[in-house]
Amino acid sequence: MSDKTFSSPVRVSVGAMGLRFVASAWEALECLKNQWPQQDGLEYKRAVRINRDALEGWMTPAKARQAFVKAAQRAGVFIDDSPPK
Description:
alpha+beta, 85 residues
């Protein structure tokens, strides 16, 4: 299992960590499992599954990133997904 890097980081604001740039499927899973405000709901579960599948090579990094963005939007922690300047 190897990490899959996103095309560009996703910026989220989570708990005590505050602002965080998530740049890969591994980082997305770590964030979802350890810092997410609510660990339930369809978008959360879908993001966990798809990012895990990306690490296993069953899903593309683009799909994993998209699922993470949707979960972040749903949870109210999404800030930005444009490339950093």
